[in-house]
Amino acid sequence: MDPRRVITAKLNLMLLITDAMRAPDEFSNLSVMNFELSKEQKDLLKQIDQACNSIRDYETECYLNEGINEKVVPTFASTGMLGLPISKKYNGKGADALTYALALERIGQEGSSLRTFFSCHVSIGQLVLQNWGNDEQKRKYLPNTTAGKSIMAFALTEPPAGSDPTSMTTKFEEKGDHYVLNGTKHWIGNATIAGVITTYAKSDDGKVSAFIVQTDSKGFRVNRIQHKMGLHSLDNGEITFDDCVVPKENLIGLKGRGLSIAYSALMDGRLSVAAGSIGVMEDCLNEAVKYSKTRVQFGEPLAKKQLIQKHIASIASNMESARWLVYRACAAKQKLAEHVEEMKKEGNWLENLLAKKNSDYTQLRNEADRLVALAKYYATNAAFDSANRAVQILGSAAYSMKSRAARHLLDSRASTILEGANEVLELKIAQSILGREYRAY
Ligand SMILES: Cc1cc2nc3c(=O)[nH]c(=O)nc-3n(C[C@H](O)[C@H](O)[C@H](O)COP(=O)(O)OP(=O)(O)OC[C@H]3O[C@@H](n4cnc5c(N)ncnc54)[C@H](O)[C@@H]3O)c2cc1C
User: Fold this and answer.
1) Concatenated DSSP letters for 208-238?
2) How far apart are CA 316 and CA 21, in angstroms?
């Protein structure tokens, strides 16, 4: 056969395969891609940068002493970081998904403890209320949390239910004008300092609902988790609901549809972890470059050695690849958010959305979900690999918790587990290509 015909046939087949994997208009706006930051984004990043620099030494001290950094809330309050993507109607800044990710990227340089505080407060905290709460709930809780008067947390994971939230055992019962919750949630970031959390429980029929719980409610208890591997300036807690009383008006969305809310929150959480991971890699690169240019062995700086340069090139390519996956996921997330805002102008939006009647919504959500999973899976693995390489370049100088690279290594290990462990995300990514009938998790 004419070799040109073989190549043409192969190309056609490749096009068919890639077309099947792409959303219809996925690349339609490539020609207008803009890699410049706007003046607003630059101004915001400058403020975030100043806030990060001003607490850098204290953050290290808190990390080494395993204590919460109580300067974070007052320091970041004026940057808008306590409610960056929250609507201006509720005293947020109304930032889009990319702008928020850029801010998390800068914060990630200071360490994943600090970034996780914001992920728990904003991404899987406030955004759950903004996306799914009713007007009354948003008015009651969002302004206080954007002002930093009340901190938020997200409590889904339980000792028997990690990657598979459907196996949760926390129960709720209706009693008069309130619900009563019983069960345990663990590893909950910000749990010990939160004023308000969102959580999930099952009714007798096995269906999951989502609730807002004030931490001063009767029957709410929290214990700090001790002896963590890393993330030492972030508190994680184990929460016990012991006949915990929750007013009826604190149900989020529709009864029995809590898992859709949890999965949507996890999408926001994953994107925040991915964005923060870019910052981790930037910091690892800075540390590695600085050290390798000054440390002399065998008569010249380590930076002159080819094997050291290989590590540096790998960190840089990890970081840049992750960056574009994250920014692309942000674009998909933003498109989804704008579509939902349009839907909210119509009556019964919640019913329509949860009943998956709106095929545009389903398509946009699946696309955002896929790209966010890819970004989180890649960026967190890349951050762990980059931190490991930075530690190797620094040698014994990094074998101490006082080393930024060492702390990134310990902390980025957690990022590959939380907000959807990376194996489960791999299966999710594969399923999005193979089809639902190949779901393997
Ligand atoms: C530091 C930290 C902070 C956290 N913060 C929060 C929080 O704020 N709120 C909250 O609700 N939760 C939080 N979590 C919990 C986190 O979301 C869970 O740890 C995560 O979902 C994984 O659950 P698991 O640890 O029970 O692991 P498991 O689900 O038991 O999984 C163990 C291992 O098996 C793998 N695995 C699981 N299923 C499959 C499969 N089908 N195929 C192949 N491999 C599989 C996983 O990838 C993982 O590597 C946090 C966890 C940590 C470590």
Assistant:
1) EEEEEEETTSTTEEEEEPPS-SS-TTS-EEE
2) 28
Ligand 1 pocket, mutate which of 167, 266, 417, 426 (most atoms under 8 A from CB): 417
Whose tokens are 């807002």? That residue is: 212
Q: Alpha-carbon distance 214 to 36, whole Å?
A: 42
Amino acid code (one letter) for 91: N
Residue 237: partners with Cβ closer than 8 Å, 6 or more residues away: 186, 188, 191, 192, 222, 223, 224, 225
Nearest CA to ligand 1 atom 43: 423
- Single out the residue of 5, 82, 93, 116 nearest to residue 41, CA to CA: 93
State which amino acid sits at residue 135. Answer: D
Q: Is 439 in the pocket of ligand 1 (CB under 6 A)?
A: no
Q: Is 417 in the pocket of ligand 1 (CB under 6 A)?
A: yes
Query: What is the reported pLDDT for 8?
Result: 45
Give the C-alpha separation, 186 to 225, whole Å. Answer: 8
Beta-sheet strands, E only, within 23-95:
none
Ligand 1 pocket test, pick from 208, 418, 422, 429 with the greatest ligand atom count within 8 Å of Cβ, gives 418
Contacts (Cβ under 8 Å, ≥6 apart) of 385:
314, 318
pLDDT on residue 323 = 97
Q: CB of 336 within 8 A of CB of 85?
A: no
Does the beta carbon of 338 sit less than 6 angstroms from any atom of ligand 1?
A: no
Q: Is the CB of 187 under 6 A from ligand 1?
A: yes
User: 239-256 pLDDT, tens per residue?
Assistant: 999 999 999 999 999 999
Active site residue 419: yes
120 lines ligand 1 (CB under 6 A): yes
For residue 342, report the distance from its CA to the centre of ligand 1, in Å.
34
Structure pTM? Answer: 0.94
Contact (Cβ atoms closer than 8 angstroms) between residue 122 and residue 99: no
